[in-house]
Write a structure and sequence with these properties.
heterodimer; A: mainly alpha; MetI-like fold; about 70% helix; elongated; B: mainly alpha; 13 helices; about 80% helix; globular
């Protein structure tokens, strides 16, 4: 999976990209896959919608329309209104924003932690490896949903950033194990050995040589983590352990809409639909990226 | 020998995980608040006495409470719930519900997912492959919560449409039903259908995708060609050589996803109103019930460990190289 870095010319179609570097080639490869294109377009559309939508809507976030409770979609309220007369369109857009931000932050954070933990464990092996992998196993055994649910209510006051940190703290383990495995094979490579015998300190080798050489794995994993972060966030918020009012996320909106989904479908359908589209788009990009970065997997697409 | 060492390691991890959960729950949850907001409000002394009885008093040092808890757990006693019932009894009642749901859901989900994935790989780029890939992709993007809720909404809709209680979507059985053995069995099955379906759907997608990719890696391999060249039928070659090899990474994957599956079960139980471990833990957190939370964590850790132990065994069964070394 990581061999791409050393043999940039090997992949068919990538030779044309010489001069623009590897990432230019990857980008072109990505744009050629229809699946990834669809994903990127969907994400762009959703991001635009989430940030421009509230500006277009005549209703503010906290504003209530006391003349219309639970009224269906109309020119006045594009997605209808909820129990207390809030505009569902505005709510959904703000929730979408939050879900996108949380997903991205959690993915970046957890992938970074995974890269550092895995690389250190794999590079030093021995005692460091034992200790770090042990912590990883422990974190894998702990039911993360439960720990998050216990911890978060007591940290509610610190806002949703704390929630992001907690989510990230329980998502790095699997990636860390993969990174460790890769590091063990990477550390025998000539360029790593050369750096080592030149007296480059270990942490520098890890950050300058080992982690950058796993970039493709890390990027693919970060993308996958975005979607699982969004899913976890939604589930936790559904049970009231996640994003707390007055903040809204897609999860808390689904929780509000689900019990009344049949009588007042607009309170359930829009947020659920957008959530599915969002995660689907992220997954499509992740899949496309994996194919673009991994020449061996090309035939899978 | 290897398995014994593994087992000891697992036990230590389980113990640490439960301890961690206990300490965390004991420091962040507030059982005192639970008693204080009771109607009518009990006297201060009564609260103290209750808290002391249940080993939940936050004025007793944490180390001491933890000590009491550990000495109980070592003897197999998880203490009392906040309503002064035995956690052990509650657990033995609820664990069965959860285990049944998980086992059926997992077996069905894995079986369906693996067969669809494997078949899709064999028919790569054909119609079946394309449809199943898209279906898996879409299902993968839907959180278990949303699957459960949507099925429920769908069930209500179908019931309204047919005018009958065709699909049950709440509880584990109809309360006070007296319909003999078959009637009860049918009733239980009716109630179990949707929750099991939820788990199966959410599992199938992940396994179908993973199995397809693994299978594609294997299909082009020399040994599969050799197997066919030496005269095996295509079907036999695929089953005995390709599928078997392709299952190995899938088993590792299963171990990793088991935690996610447990969380999914929690949501499913809670949404369908089953009184299992998952629903219990959500309620215990809301009720500040420290001992129950620790007990459920222990249960879940045991499940994760059992899953990874199982996958070790399956691994050894599928991959002869492991057995030799």
């Amino acid at each position: 999976m990581t061999l791409t870095t050393e043999q940039p010319g090997e992949a068919p179609g990538r030779t044309a990209a010489t001069g623009q570097g590897r990432w230019g080639g990857v980008l072109r490869e990505l744009l050629r896959t229809r699946r990834a294109m669809v994903g990127i377009l969907l994400i762009l559309a959703l991001v635009l919608m989430a940030w421009i939508g509230p500006l277009l809507s005549p209703w503010e976030m906290g504003e209530r329309d006391f003349t219309a409770f639970r009224s269906g979609p109309s020119p006045e309220h594009w997605f209808g209104t909820d129990n207390t007369g809030r505009d569902v369109f505005t709510l959904t857009m703000v929730g979408l924003q939050k879900s996108i931000i949380i997903g991205l932050l959690v993915a970046v954070l957890s992938t970074a932690v995974a890269a550092v933990v895995g690389a250190f464990a794999g590079y030093f092996l021995g005692l460091t490896d034992k200790a770090l992998m042990w912590v990883t196993d422990l974190a894998l055994v702990l039911p993360s949903f439960l720990i998050l649910a216990i911890l978060y209510p007591s940290l509610k006051d610190s806002g949703w950033i704390m929630f992001v940190l907690l989510l990230a703290a329980f998502m790095w383990m699997v990636t860390a194990k993969m990174v460790r495995g890769m590091t063990i094979s990477l550390k025998e490579r000539e360029y790593v050995l050369a750096a080592k015998y030149m007296g480059v300190p270990a942490w520098r080798i890890i950050f300058r040589h080992i982690i950058p050489n796993m970039a493709s794995l890390l990027i693919v994993d970060a993308t996958i983590n975005v979607s699982s972060a969004i899913i976890t966030e939604t589930s936790l918020s559904y049970f009231g352990f996640g994003v707390q009012p007055p903040d809204v996320s897609l999860g808390s909106l689904i929780a509000l809409g689900a019990p009344q989904a049949l009588a007042f479908w607009w309170m359930f359908a829009f947020c659920t639909g957008l959530l599915v589209v969002l995660v689907l788009a992220v997954n499509l990009i992740g899949d496309g990226l994996r194919d673009a970065l991994d020449p061996q997997a090309k035939r899978r697409s | 020998m290897f398995l014994v060492r593994r087992l000891v390691n697992y036990m230590v991890l389980i113990f640490l995980a439960s301890s961690f959960a206990y300490l965390l729950a004991a420091t962040t949850l507030q059982p005192r608040a639970y008693f204080e907001q009771r109607q009518p409000p009990p006297s201060q002394e009564a609260i103290e006495a209750q808290l002391n009885d249940l080993n939940l008093n936050d004025e007793v040092p944490l180390a001491q409470r933890y000590g009491v808890w550990v000495s109980g757990v070592v003897q197999g006693d998880f203490g009392q719930t906040i309503k002064d019932q035995s956690v052990n009894e509650e657990m033995s009642r609820k664990a069965g519900v959860t285990l049944r749901l998980i086992t059926v859901g997992t077996v069905l989900g894995c079986a369906v997912g693996i067969s669809i994935g494997a078949y899709a790989a064999v028919r790569q780029y054909k119609r079946f492959d394309r449809y199943s890939t898209w279906a898996a992709f879409i299902v993968l993007s839907v959180p278990t919560v949303v699957i459960a809720v949507s099925l429920q909404v769908g069930a209500v809709w179908i019931n309204d449409l047919t005018g009958k209680q065709l699909l049950q979507y709440g509880g584990e059985y109809t309360a006070g039903l007296d319909a003999g053995f078959w009637g009860t069995l049918l009733d239980r099955l009716q109630h179990a259908l949707l929750p099991t379906l939820t788990l199966t759907i959410s599992l199938f997608a992940a396994f179908a995708r993973y199995q397809r990719n693994m299978m594609l890696d294997v299909l082009g391999a020399d040994y599969v060609r050799t197997a066919m060249a030496k005269g095996l039928t295509r079907r036999r070659a695929l089953f005995k050589h390709a599928l078997r090899t392709a299952l190995i990474p899938t088993i590792t994957y299963f171990t990793f996803t088991f935690g996610v599956l447990l969380a999914g079960t929690t949501f499913t139980e809670k949404i369908y109103g089953w009184h299992g471990m998952g629903a219990w833990v959500v309620d215990s957190i809301v009720q500040n019930d420290v001992n129950s939370v620790a007990a459920v964590t222990c249960f879940m850790a045991v499940c994760v460990m059992a899953a990874s132990f199982l996958s070790d065994i399956l691994y050894a069964w599928l991959d002869p190289r492991v057995r030799v070394s």
